[in-house]
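Section 5: illustrative case.
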C-alpha cells in the first residue's frame, strides 16, 4: 500500500499477523506517499490472516491508499 504521515516523529505501522509465523511489520515516516510492502507466507493450516495499520503516537495523522493483497 501507499502510506504517508503528517508528523515524521509518529510513524504509521503496516503489518500482518496470524499467518503462522511472527508478526511482520513495516514503518513509514515519510510525509509524501511511499509504497510499502509486507511479505509473508501462510502455513498450510492457516485459514485467515489479519492485516493491520496503527499509529501508536497521539500526534499527527496517517494516510493509506491502494492497500491490497497479491499472490
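Designed sequence:
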Amino acid at each position: 500500500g501507499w502510506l504517508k504521515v503528517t508528523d515524521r516523529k509518529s510513524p504509521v505501522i503496516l503489518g500482518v499477523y496470524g499467518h503462522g509465523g511472527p508478526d511482520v511489520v513495516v514503518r513509514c515516516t515519510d510525509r509524501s506517499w511511499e509504497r510499502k510492502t509486507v511479505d509473508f507466507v501462510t502455513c498450510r493450516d492457516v485459514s485467515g490472516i489479519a492485516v493491520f495499520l496503527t499509529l501508536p503516537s497521539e500526534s499527527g495523522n496517517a494516510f493509506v491508499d491502494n492497500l491490497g493483497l497479491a499472490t
